[in-house]
Recover the amino acids of this structure.
Protein backbone atom coordinates (compact mmCIF):
# COMPACT_ATOMS: atom_id res chain seq x y z
CA UNK A 1 0.00 0.00 0.00
CA UNK A 2 2.58 2.49 1.09
CA UNK A 3 4.86 1.39 -1.70
CA UNK A 4 2.12 2.02 -4.23
CA UNK A 5 1.50 5.39 -2.67
CA UNK A 6 5.10 6.31 -2.91
CA UNK A 7 5.15 5.37 -6.57
CA UNK A 8 2.04 7.50 -7.15
CA UNK A 9 3.58 10.36 -5.25
CA UNK A 10 6.73 10.11 -7.31
CA UNK A 11 4.77 10.03 -10.53
CA UNK A 12 2.78 13.08 -9.48
CA UNK A 13 5.89 14.90 -8.42
CA UNK A 14 7.63 14.15 -11.68
CA UNK A 15 4.52 15.24 -13.57
CA UNK A 16 4.32 18.56 -11.74
CA UNK A 17 8.03 19.05 -12.20
CA UNK A 18 7.66 18.43 -15.88
CA UNK A 19 4.92 21.04 -15.92
CA UNK A 20 7.17 23.50 -14.14
CA UNK A 21 10.04 22.48 -16.39
CA UNK A 22 8.08 23.77 -19.34
CA UNK A 23 8.57 27.25 -18.02
CA UNK A 24 11.99 26.82 -16.60
CA UNK A 25 13.69 25.08 -19.42
CA UNK A 26 13.53 27.85 -22.06
CA UNK A 27 15.66 30.09 -19.86
CA UNK A 28 17.94 27.25 -18.87
CA UNK A 29 18.13 26.07 -22.46
CA UNK A 30 19.25 29.43 -23.74
CA UNK A 31 21.74 29.69 -20.88
CA UNK A 32 23.27 26.37 -21.83
CA UNK A 33 23.56 27.16 -25.52
CA UNK A 34 24.61 30.76 -24.91
CA UNK A 35 28.32 30.15 -25.63
CA UNK A 36 27.47 28.82 -29.06
CA UNK A 37 24.80 31.45 -29.66
CA UNK A 38 27.19 34.31 -28.83
CA UNK A 39 29.84 32.68 -30.97
CA UNK A 40 27.44 32.16 -33.84
CA UNK A 41 26.17 35.73 -33.79
CA UNK A 42 29.57 37.35 -33.18
CA UNK A 43 31.97 35.06 -35.01
CA UNK A 44 29.86 33.65 -37.85
CA UNK A 45 26.78 35.70 -38.66
CA UNK A 46 28.25 39.15 -38.10
CA UNK A 47 31.46 38.34 -40.02
CA UNK A 48 29.35 36.94 -42.86
CA UNK A 49 27.37 40.15 -43.13
CA UNK A 50 30.56 42.19 -42.93
CA UNK A 51 32.21 40.04 -45.56
CA UNK A 52 29.25 40.61 -47.85
CA UNK A 53 29.72 44.33 -47.26
CA UNK A 54 33.51 44.31 -47.68
CA UNK A 55 33.06 42.62 -51.05
CA UNK A 56 31.58 45.89 -52.28
CA UNK A 57 34.44 48.00 -50.94
CA UNK A 58 38.11 48.75 -51.23
CA UNK A 59 39.47 47.70 -47.86
CA UNK A 60 43.11 47.50 -46.88
CA UNK A 61 42.55 46.77 -43.18
CA UNK A 62 44.50 49.90 -42.25
CA UNK A 63 41.94 52.40 -43.54
CA UNK A 64 38.16 52.35 -43.39
CA UNK A 65 36.47 50.47 -46.24
CA UNK A 66 35.42 52.57 -49.26
CA UNK A 67 32.27 51.65 -51.17
CA UNK A 68 32.97 50.76 -54.80
CA UNK A 69 29.79 48.95 -55.78
CA UNK A 70 30.08 45.90 -58.03
CA UNK A 71 33.63 46.79 -59.10
CA UNK A 72 35.32 43.87 -57.33
CA UNK A 73 32.91 41.32 -58.76
CA UNK A 74 33.18 42.93 -62.17
CA UNK A 75 36.95 42.75 -62.15
CA UNK A 76 37.00 39.16 -60.95
CA UNK A 77 34.48 37.88 -63.45
CA UNK A 78 35.60 39.79 -66.52
CA UNK A 79 39.19 40.81 -66.09
CA UNK A 80 41.10 38.45 -63.82
CA UNK A 81 43.06 35.68 -65.51
CA UNK A 82 44.45 34.42 -62.21
CA UNK A 83 40.90 33.89 -60.95
CA UNK A 84 40.11 31.77 -64.01
CA UNK A 85 43.35 29.82 -63.65
CA UNK A 86 42.91 29.16 -59.94
CA UNK A 87 39.30 28.14 -60.44
CA UNK A 88 40.28 25.73 -63.22
CA UNK A 89 43.07 24.24 -61.10
CA UNK A 90 40.75 23.83 -58.13
CA UNK A 91 37.96 22.23 -60.17
CA UNK A 92 40.45 19.85 -61.74
CA UNK A 93 41.76 18.97 -58.31
CA UNK A 94 38.27 18.38 -56.89
CA UNK A 95 37.09 16.34 -59.86
CA UNK A 96 40.08 14.00 -59.67
CA UNK A 97 40.89 13.82 -55.98
CA UNK A 98 37.41 13.33 -54.52
CA UNK A 99 36.21 10.32 -56.58
CA UNK A 100 39.63 8.67 -56.47
CA UNK A 101 39.84 9.11 -52.73
CA UNK A 102 36.33 7.73 -52.15
CA UNK A 103 36.79 4.73 -54.47
CA UNK A 104 40.03 3.93 -52.73
CA UNK A 105 38.48 4.41 -49.29
CA UNK A 106 35.57 2.11 -50.14
CA UNK A 107 37.74 -0.65 -51.57
CA UNK A 108 40.03 -0.60 -48.55
CA UNK A 109 37.09 -0.48 -46.16
CA UNK A 110 35.76 -3.64 -47.81
CA UNK A 111 39.15 -5.30 -47.40
CA UNK A 112 39.23 -4.33 -43.74
CA UNK A 113 35.68 -5.51 -43.14
CA UNK A 114 36.80 -9.15 -43.28
CA UNK A 115 37.33 -11.34 -40.26
CA UNK A 116 41.05 -11.79 -40.50
CA UNK A 117 43.32 -12.32 -37.52
CA UNK A 118 45.33 -9.24 -36.70
CA UNK A 119 43.01 -6.97 -38.66
CA UNK A 120 43.47 -4.17 -36.14
CA UNK A 121 47.20 -4.05 -36.85
CA UNK A 122 46.51 -3.71 -40.58
CA UNK A 123 43.88 -1.08 -39.91
CA UNK A 124 46.37 0.88 -37.84
CA UNK A 125 49.00 0.88 -40.57
CA UNK A 126 46.54 1.78 -43.28
CA UNK A 127 45.05 4.58 -41.23
CA UNK A 128 48.42 5.99 -40.27
CA UNK A 129 48.98 8.31 -43.27
CA UNK A 130 45.61 9.92 -42.65
CA UNK A 131 46.36 10.52 -39.01
CA UNK A 132 49.20 12.84 -39.83
CA UNK A 133 46.88 14.25 -42.45
CA UNK A 134 47.13 17.90 -43.25
CA UNK A 135 50.17 18.56 -41.10
CA UNK A 136 52.98 20.53 -42.61
CA UNK A 137 55.31 17.62 -41.83
CA UNK A 138 53.61 15.50 -44.47
CA UNK A 139 53.78 18.33 -46.97
CA UNK A 140 57.52 18.50 -46.39
CA UNK A 141 57.79 14.73 -46.83
CA UNK A 142 55.86 14.95 -50.09
CA UNK A 143 57.94 17.79 -51.40
CA UNK A 144 61.01 15.65 -50.89
CA UNK A 145 59.54 12.39 -52.18
CA UNK A 146 58.53 13.90 -55.52
CA UNK A 147 61.55 16.15 -55.95
CA UNK A 148 64.20 15.57 -58.63
CA UNK A 149 66.28 13.19 -56.55
CA UNK A 150 63.47 12.06 -54.30
CA UNK A 151 62.17 8.67 -53.44
CA UNK A 152 59.83 8.21 -56.44
CA UNK A 153 62.66 8.69 -58.90
CA UNK A 154 64.85 6.29 -56.94
CA UNK A 155 62.22 3.61 -57.41
CA UNK A 156 61.82 4.45 -61.09
CA UNK A 157 65.55 4.22 -61.52
CA UNK A 158 65.44 0.59 -60.42
CA UNK A 159 63.15 -0.03 -63.39
CA UNK A 160 65.45 1.94 -65.64
CA UNK A 161 63.20 4.96 -66.00
CA UNK A 162 64.93 8.28 -66.01
CA UNK A 163 64.42 10.61 -63.09
CA UNK A 164 61.93 13.35 -63.47
CA UNK A 165 61.13 16.42 -61.41
CA UNK A 166 57.48 15.82 -60.61
CA UNK A 167 56.90 18.84 -58.43
CA UNK A 168 58.62 21.22 -60.81
CA UNK A 169 56.80 20.25 -63.98
CA UNK A 170 53.48 22.02 -64.55
CA UNK A 171 52.09 18.87 -66.16
CA UNK A 172 52.59 16.66 -63.10
CA UNK A 173 52.64 19.01 -60.12
CA UNK A 174 48.89 18.87 -59.58
CA UNK A 175 48.90 15.07 -59.79
CA UNK A 176 51.38 14.85 -56.91
CA UNK A 177 48.89 16.78 -54.78
CA UNK A 178 46.06 14.47 -55.88
CA UNK A 179 48.15 11.44 -54.95
CA UNK A 180 48.87 12.97 -51.57
CA UNK A 181 45.21 13.48 -50.63
CA UNK A 182 44.24 10.08 -52.03
CA UNK A 183 46.93 8.50 -49.83
CA UNK A 184 45.08 10.04 -46.88
CA UNK A 185 41.73 8.38 -47.43
CA UNK A 186 41.47 7.24 -43.79
CA UNK A 187 38.59 9.26 -42.41
CA UNK A 188 36.31 8.41 -45.34
CA UNK A 189 37.39 4.81 -44.97
CA UNK A 190 36.46 4.67 -41.27
CA UNK A 191 33.03 6.09 -42.09
CA UNK A 192 32.56 3.50 -44.86
CA UNK A 193 33.67 0.78 -42.46
CA UNK A 194 31.01 1.66 -39.88
CA UNK A 195 28.48 1.64 -42.72
CA UNK A 196 29.60 -1.76 -44.01
CA UNK A 197 29.23 -3.25 -40.55
CA UNK A 198 25.58 -2.20 -40.50
CA UNK A 199 24.61 -4.10 -43.65
CA UNK A 200 22.80 -7.24 -42.43
CA UNK A 201 24.71 -10.42 -43.25
CA UNK A 202 21.49 -12.18 -44.26
CA UNK A 203 21.40 -10.11 -47.43
CA UNK A 204 24.64 -11.63 -48.59
CA UNK A 205 23.73 -15.11 -47.41
CA UNK A 206 20.34 -15.02 -49.09
CA UNK A 207 21.79 -13.74 -52.34
CA UNK A 208 24.56 -16.34 -52.46
CA UNK A 209 21.93 -19.04 -51.97
CA UNK A 210 20.29 -17.56 -55.06
CA UNK A 211 23.63 -17.85 -56.83
CA UNK A 212 24.66 -14.21 -57.00
CA UNK A 213 28.34 -13.60 -57.70
CA UNK A 214 30.54 -11.40 -55.54
CA UNK A 215 30.50 -8.68 -58.13
CA UNK A 216 26.73 -8.84 -58.43
CA UNK A 217 26.51 -8.65 -54.61
CA UNK A 218 28.70 -5.57 -54.59
CA UNK A 219 26.52 -3.71 -57.07
CA UNK A 220 23.15 -4.96 -55.81
CA UNK A 221 23.69 -5.02 -52.05
CA UNK A 222 26.80 -3.18 -50.91
CA UNK A 223 26.58 -0.09 -53.08
CA UNK A 224 22.85 0.61 -52.59
CA UNK A 225 23.08 0.00 -48.82
CA UNK A 226 26.06 2.29 -48.54
CA UNK A 227 24.67 5.00 -50.80
CA UNK A 228 23.62 7.38 -47.99
CA UNK A 229 27.15 7.14 -46.59
CA UNK A 230 28.66 7.66 -50.01
CA UNK A 231 26.58 10.82 -50.28
CA UNK A 232 27.76 12.00 -46.86
CA UNK A 233 31.42 11.38 -47.70
CA UNK A 234 31.05 12.91 -51.14
CA UNK A 235 29.61 16.14 -49.77
CA UNK A 236 32.20 16.42 -46.97
CA UNK A 237 35.15 15.69 -49.26
CA UNK A 238 33.95 18.01 -52.00
CA UNK A 239 33.53 20.93 -49.62
CA UNK A 240 36.92 20.18 -48.10
CA UNK A 241 38.75 19.83 -51.40
CA UNK A 242 37.56 23.18 -52.69
CA UNK A 243 39.38 24.74 -49.74
CA UNK A 244 42.68 22.86 -50.09
CA UNK A 245 45.48 25.14 -48.94
CA UNK A 246 48.33 23.88 -46.76
CA UNK A 247 49.78 21.22 -49.05
CA UNK A 248 49.71 23.44 -52.12
CA UNK A 249 51.16 26.30 -50.12
CA UNK A 250 54.11 24.25 -48.84
CA UNK A 251 54.84 21.78 -51.61
CA UNK A 252 54.48 23.88 -54.74
CA UNK A 253 53.59 27.41 -53.56
CA UNK A 254 51.04 27.40 -56.37
CA UNK A 255 53.65 26.87 -59.04
CA UNK A 256 55.13 25.89 -61.39
CA UNK A 257 53.46 28.42 -63.73
CA UNK A 258 50.40 28.51 -61.48
CA UNK A 259 49.64 24.87 -62.23
CA UNK A 260 48.74 24.24 -58.57
CA UNK A 261 47.49 27.70 -57.72
CA UNK A 262 44.45 26.68 -55.69
CA UNK A 263 41.57 29.06 -55.14
CA UNK A 264 42.27 29.29 -51.40
CA UNK A 265 45.87 30.16 -52.18
CA UNK A 266 44.81 32.97 -54.50
CA UNK A 267 42.40 34.29 -51.91
CA UNK A 268 45.15 34.24 -49.29
CA UNK A 269 47.53 36.14 -51.57
CA UNK A 270 44.95 38.81 -52.32
CA UNK A 271 43.93 39.21 -48.68
CA UNK A 272 47.18 38.89 -46.78
CA UNK A 273 49.77 39.36 -49.49
CA UNK A 274 48.35 42.45 -51.13
CA UNK A 275 45.97 43.49 -48.32
CA UNK A 276 43.04 43.69 -50.76
CA UNK A 277 40.48 42.58 -48.22
CA UNK A 278 37.51 43.76 -50.27
CA UNK A 279 38.59 41.92 -53.38
CA UNK A 280 39.35 38.80 -51.34
CA UNK A 281 35.91 38.97 -49.69
CA UNK A 282 34.32 38.98 -53.13
CA UNK A 283 36.46 35.95 -54.01
CA UNK A 284 35.26 34.24 -50.83
CA UNK A 285 31.60 34.78 -51.74
CA UNK A 286 32.16 33.45 -55.23
CA UNK A 287 33.79 30.39 -53.67
CA UNK A 288 30.82 29.95 -51.34
CA UNK A 289 28.43 30.11 -54.28
CA UNK A 290 30.47 27.61 -56.28
CA UNK A 291 30.62 25.21 -53.33
CA UNK A 292 26.90 25.73 -52.82
CA UNK A 293 26.16 24.86 -56.45
CA UNK A 294 28.42 21.80 -56.32
CA UNK A 295 26.72 20.58 -53.14
CA UNK A 296 23.27 21.26 -54.55
CA UNK A 297 24.11 19.29 -57.70
CA UNK A 298 25.27 16.36 -55.59
CA UNK A 299 22.06 16.44 -53.55
CA UNK A 300 19.85 16.70 -56.64
CA UNK A 301 21.65 13.80 -58.29
CA UNK A 302 21.39 11.80 -55.07
CA UNK A 303 17.66 11.31 -55.68
CA UNK A 304 18.63 8.91 -58.42
CA UNK A 305 21.31 6.95 -56.68
CA UNK A 306 20.78 7.09 -52.92
CA UNK A 307 18.53 4.46 -51.35
CA UNK A 308 17.27 4.70 -47.80
CA UNK A 309 16.57 1.64 -45.70
CA UNK A 310 13.06 2.67 -44.61
CA UNK A 311 11.99 3.34 -48.21
CA UNK A 312 12.90 -0.17 -49.16
CA UNK A 313 10.99 -1.54 -46.21
CA UNK A 314 8.01 0.56 -47.17
CA UNK A 315 7.90 -1.00 -50.60
CA UNK A 316 8.22 -4.54 -49.30
CA UNK B 1 38.54 -26.73 -45.93
CA UNK B 2 41.74 -26.38 -47.88
CA UNK B 3 40.23 -23.71 -50.05
CA UNK B 4 39.19 -21.74 -46.98
CA UNK B 5 42.73 -21.70 -45.59
CA UNK B 6 44.09 -20.74 -49.00
CA UNK B 7 41.73 -17.79 -48.97
CA UNK B 8 42.97 -16.88 -45.53
CA UNK B 9 46.56 -16.76 -46.69
CA UNK B 10 45.55 -14.77 -49.73
CA UNK B 11 43.78 -12.25 -47.51
CA UNK B 12 46.83 -11.88 -45.32
CA UNK B 13 49.08 -11.50 -48.33
CA UNK B 14 46.88 -8.74 -49.73
CA UNK B 15 46.71 -6.95 -46.39
CA UNK B 16 50.45 -7.15 -45.77
CA UNK B 17 51.27 -5.93 -49.27
CA UNK B 18 48.81 -3.10 -48.96
CA UNK B 19 49.99 -2.05 -45.50
CA UNK B 20 53.53 -1.96 -46.84
CA UNK B 21 52.53 0.31 -49.71
CA UNK B 22 50.80 2.64 -47.28
CA UNK B 23 53.62 2.67 -44.75
CA UNK B 24 56.52 2.69 -47.19
CA UNK B 25 56.81 6.48 -47.48
CA UNK B 26 56.79 6.70 -43.69
CA UNK B 27 59.55 4.10 -43.35
CA UNK B 28 61.51 5.91 -46.02
CA UNK B 29 60.95 9.12 -44.08
CA UNK B 30 62.49 7.55 -40.98
CA UNK B 31 65.50 6.43 -43.00
CA UNK B 32 65.93 9.73 -44.81
CA UNK B 33 65.86 11.66 -41.55
CA UNK B 34 69.06 9.83 -40.64
CA UNK B 35 70.84 10.51 -43.92
CA UNK B 36 73.50 13.00 -44.83
CA UNK B 37 72.52 15.43 -47.54
CA UNK B 38 74.78 13.70 -50.07
CA UNK B 39 73.19 10.36 -49.30
CA UNK B 40 69.65 11.52 -50.03
CA UNK B 41 69.91 10.37 -53.65
CA UNK B 42 70.96 6.84 -52.78
CA UNK B 43 68.19 4.27 -53.21
CA UNK B 44 68.92 2.56 -49.86
CA UNK B 45 66.23 3.18 -47.32
CA UNK B 46 68.62 3.40 -44.41
CA UNK B 47 71.99 5.14 -44.59
CA UNK B 48 75.26 3.32 -44.02
CA UNK B 49 75.91 5.34 -40.87
CA UNK B 50 72.84 6.86 -39.23
CA UNK B 51 73.26 10.58 -38.64
CA UNK B 52 71.57 11.00 -35.27
CA UNK B 53 73.06 14.45 -35.41
CA UNK B 54 70.25 15.48 -37.76
CA UNK B 55 67.91 15.42 -34.79
CA UNK B 56 70.27 17.30 -32.53
CA UNK B 57 71.26 19.94 -35.09
CA UNK B 58 67.75 20.24 -36.46
CA UNK B 59 66.43 20.96 -33.00
CA UNK B 60 68.52 24.13 -32.81
CA UNK B 61 68.73 24.96 -36.53
CA UNK B 62 66.60 28.09 -36.28
CA UNK B 63 68.72 30.93 -34.91
CA UNK B 64 67.98 32.18 -31.37
CA UNK B 65 65.11 29.75 -30.68
CA UNK B 66 65.27 26.00 -30.24
CA UNK B 67 62.38 23.72 -31.02
CA UNK B 68 61.76 23.37 -27.27
CA UNK B 69 60.44 26.91 -27.41
CA UNK B 70 58.10 26.16 -30.34
CA UNK B 71 56.80 23.00 -28.69
CA UNK B 72 56.02 24.92 -25.51
CA UNK B 73 54.14 27.47 -27.62
CA UNK B 74 52.16 24.78 -29.39
CA UNK B 75 51.29 23.07 -26.13
CA UNK B 76 50.28 26.35 -24.52
CA UNK B 77 47.92 27.12 -27.38
CA UNK B 78 46.47 23.62 -27.48
CA UNK B 79 45.92 23.35 -23.73
CA UNK B 80 43.91 26.57 -23.82
CA UNK B 81 41.91 25.37 -26.78
CA UNK B 82 41.26 21.91 -25.32
CA UNK B 83 40.07 23.18 -21.98
CA UNK B 84 37.70 25.77 -23.42
CA UNK B 85 36.36 23.38 -26.05
CA UNK B 86 35.45 20.69 -23.54
CA UNK B 87 33.59 23.11 -21.28
CA UNK B 88 31.75 25.10 -23.95
CA UNK B 89 30.85 22.27 -26.32
CA UNK B 90 29.56 20.01 -23.54
CA UNK B 91 27.38 22.80 -22.10
CA UNK B 92 25.93 23.60 -25.50
CA UNK B 93 25.43 19.96 -26.42
CA UNK B 94 23.63 19.33 -23.13
CA UNK B 95 21.32 22.25 -23.86
CA UNK B 96 20.46 20.97 -27.31
CA UNK B 97 20.11 17.33 -26.28
CA UNK B 98 18.21 17.66 -23.02
CA UNK B 99 16.33 20.95 -22.76
CA UNK B 100 13.25 22.06 -24.56
CA UNK B 101 13.16 25.68 -25.67
CA UNK B 102 11.65 27.70 -28.48
CA UNK B 103 13.57 27.62 -31.78
CA UNK B 104 15.75 24.76 -30.56
CA UNK B 105 15.57 22.88 -33.85
CA UNK B 106 16.20 26.04 -35.81
CA UNK B 107 19.39 26.78 -33.87
CA UNK B 108 20.49 23.18 -34.09
CA UNK B 109 20.08 23.17 -37.84
CA UNK B 110 22.29 26.26 -37.88
CA UNK B 111 24.95 24.28 -36.02
CA UNK B 112 24.83 21.74 -38.82
CA UNK B 113 24.97 24.42 -41.50
CA UNK B 114 28.03 26.06 -39.95
CA UNK B 115 29.61 22.60 -40.05
CA UNK B 116 29.52 22.89 -43.84
CA UNK B 117 30.32 26.60 -44.11
CA UNK B 118 33.67 27.29 -45.78
CA UNK B 119 35.88 29.27 -43.43
CA UNK B 120 36.94 31.74 -46.14
CA UNK B 121 33.64 33.61 -45.89
CA UNK B 122 34.18 34.63 -42.30
CA UNK B 123 37.96 34.76 -42.45
CA UNK B 124 38.53 38.38 -43.42
CA UNK B 125 36.02 40.10 -41.12
CA UNK B 126 37.17 37.87 -38.27
CA UNK B 127 40.73 38.85 -38.96
CA UNK B 128 39.82 42.52 -39.15
CA UNK B 129 37.87 42.21 -35.89
CA UNK B 130 40.67 40.46 -34.00
CA UNK B 131 43.10 42.91 -35.52
CA UNK B 132 41.17 45.85 -34.09
CA UNK B 133 41.03 44.13 -30.67
CA UNK B 134 44.82 43.89 -30.79
CA UNK B 135 44.67 40.09 -30.73
CA UNK B 136 46.93 39.48 -33.70
CA UNK B 137 50.10 37.74 -32.59
CA UNK B 138 48.43 36.30 -29.49
CA UNK B 139 46.65 32.99 -29.05
CA UNK B 140 43.31 34.65 -28.36
CA UNK B 141 42.04 34.27 -31.97
CA UNK B 142 42.16 30.53 -31.28
CA UNK B 143 41.10 30.34 -27.64
CA UNK B 144 38.16 32.77 -27.76
CA UNK B 145 36.32 31.05 -30.65
CA UNK B 146 36.83 27.70 -28.95
CA UNK B 147 35.45 28.99 -25.68
CA UNK B 148 32.34 29.96 -27.68
CA UNK B 149 31.96 26.41 -29.00
CA UNK B 150 33.40 27.44 -32.36
CA UNK B 151 36.87 27.34 -33.84
CA UNK B 152 38.35 24.31 -35.55
CA UNK B 153 35.75 21.55 -35.39
CA UNK B 154 33.46 23.30 -32.89
CA UNK B 155 30.20 22.52 -34.68
CA UNK B 156 31.32 18.95 -35.25
CA UNK B 157 32.01 18.50 -31.54
CA UNK B 158 28.58 19.86 -30.60
CA UNK B 159 26.96 17.49 -33.08
CA UNK B 160 28.96 14.51 -31.82
CA UNK B 161 28.20 15.24 -28.16
CA UNK B 162 24.48 15.87 -28.82
CA UNK B 163 24.22 12.48 -30.53
CA UNK B 164 25.97 10.84 -27.60
CA UNK B 165 23.96 12.58 -24.87
CA UNK B 166 20.70 11.68 -26.61
CA UNK B 167 21.67 8.06 -26.05
CA UNK B 168 21.85 8.49 -22.27
CA UNK B 169 18.50 7.46 -20.67
CA UNK B 170 16.35 10.44 -19.76
CA UNK B 171 15.01 8.62 -16.69
CA UNK B 172 18.28 9.51 -14.98
CA UNK B 173 17.45 13.23 -15.35
CA UNK B 174 13.94 12.69 -14.02
CA UNK B 175 15.23 10.83 -10.99
CA UNK B 176 17.77 13.54 -10.28
CA UNK B 177 15.13 16.24 -10.67
CA UNK B 178 12.93 14.55 -8.10
CA UNK B 179 15.89 14.47 -5.77
CA UNK B 180 16.11 18.22 -6.16
CA UNK B 181 18.84 18.55 -8.71
CA UNK B 182 18.73 21.59 -11.00
CA UNK B 183 19.68 21.58 -14.68
CA UNK B 184 23.27 22.47 -14.01
CA UNK B 185 23.46 19.68 -11.45
CA UNK B 186 22.08 17.22 -13.97
CA UNK B 187 24.64 18.37 -16.50
CA UNK B 188 27.55 18.28 -14.11
CA UNK B 189 26.76 15.27 -11.92
CA UNK B 190 24.77 12.97 -14.19
CA UNK B 191 25.38 13.62 -17.87
CA UNK B 192 29.02 14.74 -17.86
CA UNK B 193 30.39 11.63 -16.13
CA UNK B 194 28.44 9.41 -18.54
CA UNK B 195 29.64 11.39 -21.55
CA UNK B 196 33.29 10.72 -20.76
CA UNK B 197 34.00 8.47 -23.76
CA UNK B 198 32.62 11.07 -26.16
CA UNK B 199 34.54 13.83 -24.39
CA UNK B 200 37.75 11.86 -24.85
CA UNK B 201 36.95 11.60 -28.56
CA UNK B 202 36.38 15.33 -28.73
CA UNK B 203 39.69 15.96 -26.99
CA UNK B 204 41.56 13.72 -29.40
CA UNK B 205 40.13 15.37 -32.49
CA UNK B 206 40.52 18.81 -31.01
CA UNK B 207 44.15 18.08 -30.28
CA UNK B 208 44.89 16.60 -33.69
CA UNK B 209 43.15 19.30 -35.70
CA UNK B 210 44.70 22.15 -33.79
CA UNK B 211 48.09 20.47 -33.82
CA UNK B 212 47.86 20.17 -37.61
CA UNK B 213 46.33 23.59 -38.13
CA UNK B 214 48.56 25.69 -40.25
CA UNK B 215 46.46 28.32 -41.97
CA UNK B 216 45.15 29.85 -38.74
CA UNK B 217 48.60 30.00 -37.21
CA UNK B 218 49.98 31.44 -40.44
CA UNK B 219 47.67 34.43 -40.51
CA UNK B 220 47.39 35.23 -36.80
CA UNK B 221 50.89 34.63 -35.45
CA UNK B 222 53.69 36.70 -36.90
CA UNK B 223 56.55 36.93 -34.44
CA UNK B 224 59.01 34.05 -34.23
CA UNK B 225 58.79 34.28 -30.46
CA UNK B 226 55.15 33.08 -30.61
CA UNK B 227 55.62 30.59 -33.46
CA UNK B 228 54.11 27.14 -33.11
CA UNK B 229 55.83 23.99 -34.33
CA UNK B 230 54.03 24.12 -37.68
CA UNK B 231 55.17 27.66 -38.37
CA UNK B 232 58.69 26.87 -37.19
CA UNK B 233 58.87 24.06 -39.73
CA UNK B 234 57.87 26.43 -42.49
CA UNK B 235 60.48 28.92 -41.32
CA UNK B 236 62.95 26.06 -41.48
CA UNK B 237 62.12 25.37 -45.16
CA UNK B 238 62.28 29.00 -46.15
CA UNK B 239 65.34 30.08 -44.19
CA UNK B 240 67.80 27.60 -45.63
CA UNK B 241 69.49 28.24 -48.93
CA UNK B 242 71.08 24.85 -49.23
CA UNK B 243 68.21 22.77 -47.94
CA UNK B 244 69.23 20.55 -45.03
CA UNK B 245 66.77 17.81 -45.98
CA UNK B 246 67.97 15.40 -43.31
CA UNK B 247 67.41 17.87 -40.48
CA UNK B 248 64.17 19.10 -41.95
CA UNK B 249 62.76 15.59 -42.32
CA UNK B 250 63.96 14.73 -38.81
CA UNK B 251 62.18 17.73 -37.31
CA UNK B 252 58.97 17.07 -39.25
CA UNK B 253 59.04 13.47 -38.10
CA UNK B 254 59.32 14.60 -34.48
CA UNK B 255 56.43 17.01 -35.02
CA UNK B 256 53.98 14.20 -35.78
CA UNK B 257 54.97 12.22 -32.65
CA UNK B 258 52.40 13.82 -30.31
CA UNK B 259 49.61 12.95 -32.75
CA UNK B 260 50.87 9.40 -33.14
CA UNK B 261 51.19 8.84 -29.39
CA UNK B 262 47.68 10.14 -28.73
CA UNK B 263 46.29 8.01 -31.52
CA UNK B 264 47.93 4.84 -30.21
CA UNK B 265 46.76 5.48 -26.65
CA UNK B 266 43.19 6.26 -27.61
CA UNK B 267 42.49 4.23 -30.74
CA UNK B 268 39.28 2.84 -29.30
CA UNK B 269 37.74 6.28 -28.81
CA UNK B 270 38.79 7.35 -32.24
CA UNK B 271 36.62 4.96 -34.18
CA UNK B 272 33.88 5.12 -31.56
CA UNK B 273 33.66 8.85 -32.08
CA UNK B 274 32.96 8.54 -35.76
CA UNK B 275 30.56 5.65 -35.19
CA UNK B 276 28.63 7.54 -32.51
CA UNK B 277 27.74 10.40 -34.84
CA UNK B 278 25.04 7.93 -35.79
CA UNK B 279 25.54 7.78 -39.53
CA UNK B 280 23.44 4.83 -40.53
CA UNK B 281 23.36 2.85 -43.75
Amino acid sequence: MSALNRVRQRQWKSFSLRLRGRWESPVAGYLFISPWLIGFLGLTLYPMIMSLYYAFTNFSLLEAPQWVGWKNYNLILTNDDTFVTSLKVTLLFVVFSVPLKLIFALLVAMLLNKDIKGISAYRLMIYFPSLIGTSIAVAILWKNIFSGDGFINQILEVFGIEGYSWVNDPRTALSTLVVLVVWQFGSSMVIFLTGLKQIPRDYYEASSVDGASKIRQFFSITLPSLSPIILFNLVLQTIGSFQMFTQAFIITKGGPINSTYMYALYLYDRAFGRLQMGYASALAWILLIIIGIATALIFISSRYWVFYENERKGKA
Amino acid sequence: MRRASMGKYRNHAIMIAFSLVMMYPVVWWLGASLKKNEEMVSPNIFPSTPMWGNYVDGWTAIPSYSFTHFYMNSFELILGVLFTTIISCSLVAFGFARLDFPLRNFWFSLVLITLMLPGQVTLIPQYSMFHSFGWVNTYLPFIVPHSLAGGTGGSFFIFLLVQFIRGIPKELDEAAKIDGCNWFGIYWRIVMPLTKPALVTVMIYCFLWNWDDFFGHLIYINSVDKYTVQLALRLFIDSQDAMQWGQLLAMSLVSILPAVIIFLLAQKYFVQGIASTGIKG
About this structure: The first helix of chain B runs from residue 2 to 32. The radius of gyration of chain B is 24 Å. Residues 171 and 194 of chain B are 14 Å apart (CA to CA). Residues 2-58 of chain B form one domain.
